[in-house]
């Protein structure tokens, strides 16, 4: 079983900054806007994930009037260190804050190579290459 999609709720007043952050930070992974419903609901995904005529969105960013109660942690997987490095650089350039530079995290397992960036709303976003 795999996760079909994840939704991240951010304050409406930070929605555009967060959306811009995700579009730029996740560009190395191939993410683009796949769906948009109104002003504050956007689904991101990769064209590589299309199943026939279905445009898959596996990461949703939704604005909310209520302040989310706590920061979220979302991890995206990839297949190489260069993509992890690219995410980290793009995330910082997009206005994110460093929360862990690219590198091995052997306390998770010997091939765990990851980077962490905080989005404009304080959510901890990770990209990881497990090395297999």
Automatic annotation (TrEMBL):
What is the recorded name of this protein?
A: Glyoxalase family protein
Ranges for domain VOC: 2-130
SUPFAM superfamilies assigned to the protein according to its UniProt record, in alphabetical order: Glyoxalase/Bleomycin resistance protein/Dihydroxybiphenyl dioxygenase
**Stored Gene3D superfamilies:** 2,3-Dihydroxybiphenyl 1,2-Dioxygenase, domain 1
């Amino acid at each position: 079983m795999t996760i079909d999609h994840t939704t991240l709720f951010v304050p409406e007043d930070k929605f555009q900054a967060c959306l811009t952050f995700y579009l730029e930070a996740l560009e190395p992974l191939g993410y683009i806007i796949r769906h948009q419903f109104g002003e504050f609901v956007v689904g991101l995904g990769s064209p590589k994930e299309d199943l026939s005529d279905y445009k898959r969105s596996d990461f949703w960013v939704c604005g909310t009037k209520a302040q989310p109660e706590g920061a979220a942690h979302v991890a995206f997987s990839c297949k190489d260190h260069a993509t992890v490095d690219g995410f980290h650089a793009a995330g910082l350039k997009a206005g994110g804050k460093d929360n862990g530079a690219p590198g091995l995290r052997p306390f998770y397992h010997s091939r765990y190579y990851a980077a962490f960036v905080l989005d404009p709303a304080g959510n901890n976003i990770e990209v990881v290459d497990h090395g297999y």
